[in-house]
């Protein structure tokens, strides 16, 4: 059951990352959506959406691995 919940939690940010990639690709091929009035803004919006989705997925995985002690903590230099 927890694996299904984790999969569902990662599904939505994954969709956002895919939408961000699509917006960037469409900007490169000169296909402007009506909500964006310039290709540059469409590309930047797609890049930000992609980064947010990717950051959420990465943060979720790091949190899960730290919880299971699969990642060693950094030793402080003091």
From TrEMBL:
It comes from Salinibacillus kushneri. The chain crosses the membrane at residues 33-62. InterPro entries: Uncharacterised_YqzF. It holds the Pfam family DUF2627. Keywords: Membrane, Transmembrane, Transmembrane helix. This is DUF2627 domain-containing protein. It comes from the Bacteria.
């Amino acid at each position: 059951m927890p694996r299904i919940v984790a999969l569902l939690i990662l599904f939505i940010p994954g969709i956002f990352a895919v939408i961000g990639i699509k917006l960037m690709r469409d900007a490169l091929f000169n296909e402007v959506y009506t909500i964006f009035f310039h290709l540059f803004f469409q590309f930047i919006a797609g890049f930000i959406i992609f980064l947010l989705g990717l950051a959420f997925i990465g943060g979720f995985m790091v949190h899960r691995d730290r919880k299971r002690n699969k990642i060693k903590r950094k030793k402080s230099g003091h």
